[in-house]
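Recap from last week: sequence in, structure out.
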Amino acid sequence: MVSAESKAQIQTPTEAKDYLPMSEVDEKPTFPGGINEFYKFIQANYQTPKVQGLEGKLYMTFVIEKDGSVTGVKTLRDIGYGTGDEAVRVLAKFS
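Predicted structure tokens:
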């Protein structure tokens, strides 16, 4: 399973978008149906490489925009074999 964390980014007021740290957001984003539905979505869409003994965690970062779309999807750390690229592909479905 893929572990995912969302992190709001802080930008200066002169930039086009207004980002707030997660601690300052009035309403934190939720996946329709809750976190368990998010995990089910990931399990249904993420294609694990067919490599014997492959295990580990992926660390991803992304921004959830005010309209609920996902932008800035990046892999912070993966376990190789295209696992990070696959996670980016799946999370990009929310764009």
